[in-house]
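for the recovery benchmark. tokens below, seq after
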């Protein structure tokens, strides 16, 4: 009997264990959430992006692997119809006819290295994003977006399906392929530059074609408001086309100069494509102490718009053809000189005289001018030596002694040895080339002083040239 009870107990325990095990086996498993697809996987599953997938596969740079990466990326994805139109417009019979290196750059021009949604773009209205294609100097090419009527990129592709969310970014399907823009394309695509584009077409020479060449160029691009202010009611068609050409070329620099370079440089002079007095390249003064400003009148409002052949910096004022007065007023190193020419010598209108661009003036003072401009430190030393500011008559005589008229004498015009210069004041001083120490030239003035140095040369204006002195010259 005792044996029978123990057997029943063991059977009961075994049955209970089996029941519990069976219950566990029949429990409902939890369903894991589906893994979000990445940009490439979504493109593969989207029939209207099949040409894009084929292009990514064919192009240089293993772009499929790139877009399988972590990102985040924003891909502006052209439809099959967009690719067909692009191939037709560019004379390609099929995708296989497009050089793979070119195809790679075109596709990279549709990739932004950030996750940008349509609401992000709408909040900004219009502007530029950096794509992943590169310019001739290796800078990322800019993409212009405008949300004033839908969302458009480079005025070539509009978003038809926005905000396709992927694990590594966002896809916006667009109805046009974005070709690689040069700086002219950027100007044409942005409605803020319609006046600039019109002016380029109206000026002498074919500036539009010139700015489509390899470059690289840096263009300081005045916006529509800047042109309106500059013209001040004068129709653009009434502006002399030869003068208009020079004004526009005064906004074009050789090389691709980005804002970082200018900021690192701080302040100084470069040259433009305009022609100054004597047939020399026109100078341009830049100063980055408060934003990036050119010739003291025009400030960068949008920097570093990169095209295939250069860079655009949008500016808020047209940079007219500078006179020697323009540079003196723009460069803070000449602030004391400017004060001397204006406030301290009211009896002589130096600003008017040195702004002249035509000859046959009644007083016989005619451009071109060669101006020897003392720095602020040079004037401070003079005031200290004299025990105060000279009286107006003396100061006027001294200032006239620093100007030669009817001659644009550059450093390249000087001979080795002694070069006598006759000033507006009537006195003569001598430039001795080469100079001693850091001086480019030494000067012997009318007082017999020989410790005057020319420390910078050839600031070229439309009506003359400026050379910089480290000491004020005296006529006697």
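predicted aa per position
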């Amino acid at each position: 009997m005792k044996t029978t009870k123990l057997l029943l107990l063991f059977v009961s325990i075994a049955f209970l264990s089996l029941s519990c095990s069976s219950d566990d086996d029949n429990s409902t498993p939890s369903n894991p959430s589906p893994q979000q697809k990445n940009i490439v996987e979504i493109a593969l599953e989207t029939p209207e992006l099949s040409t894009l997938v084929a292009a990514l596969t064919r192009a240089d740079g293993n772009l499929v692997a790139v877009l399988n990466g972590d990102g985040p990326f924003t891909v502006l994805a052209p439809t099959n119809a967009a690719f067909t139109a692009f191939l037709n417009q560019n004379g390609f019979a099929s995708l296989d006819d497009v050089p793979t290196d070119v195809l790679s750059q075109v596709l990279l021009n549709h990739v932004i290295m950030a996750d940008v949604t349509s609401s992000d773009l709408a909040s900004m209205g219009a502007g530029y994003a950096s794509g992943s294609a590169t310019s001739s100097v290796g800078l990322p090419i800019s993409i212009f977006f405008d949300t004033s009527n839908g969302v458009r990129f480079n005025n070539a592709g509009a978003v038809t399906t926005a905000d396709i969310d992927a694990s590594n970014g966002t896809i916006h399907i667009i109805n046009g392929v974005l070709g690689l823009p040069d700086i002219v394309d950027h100007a044409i695509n942005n409605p803020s530059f319609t006046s600039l584009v019109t002016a380029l077409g109206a000026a002498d020479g074919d500036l539009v074609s010139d700015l489509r060449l390899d470059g690289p160029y840096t263009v300081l691009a005045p916006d529509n408001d800047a042109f309106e202010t500059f013209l001040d009611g004068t129709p653009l068609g009434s502006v002399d086309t030869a003068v208009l050409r020079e004004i526009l070329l005064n906004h074009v620099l050789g090389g691709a100069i980005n804002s970082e370079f200018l900021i690192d440089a701080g302040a100084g002079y470069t040259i433009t494509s305009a022609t100054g007095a004597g047939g020399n390249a026109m100078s341009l003064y830049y100063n980055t102490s408060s934003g990036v400003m050119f010739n003291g009148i025009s400030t960068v409002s949008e920097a570093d718009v990169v095209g295939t052949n250069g860079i655009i910096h949008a500016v808020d004022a047209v940079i007219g053809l500078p006179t020697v007065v323009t540079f003196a007023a723009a460069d803070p190193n000449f602030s004391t000189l400017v004060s001397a020419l204006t406030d301290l010598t009211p009896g002589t209108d130096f600003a008017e005289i040195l702004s002249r661009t035509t000859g046959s003036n009644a007083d016989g003072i005619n451009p071109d001018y060669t101006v020897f401009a003392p720095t602020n430190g040079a004037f401070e030393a003079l005031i200290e030596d004299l025990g105060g500011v000279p009286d107006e008559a003396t100061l006027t005589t001294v200032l006239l002694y620093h100007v030669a008229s009817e001659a644009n004498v550059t450093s390249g015009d000087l001979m080795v040895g002694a070069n006598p210069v006759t000033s507006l004041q009537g006195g003569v001083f001598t430039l001795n080339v080469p100079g001693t120490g850091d001086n480019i030239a030494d000067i012997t003035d009318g007082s017999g002083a020989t410790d005057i140095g020319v420390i910078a040369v050839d600031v070229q204006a439309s009506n003359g040239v400026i050379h910089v002195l480290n000491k004020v010259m005296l006529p006697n």
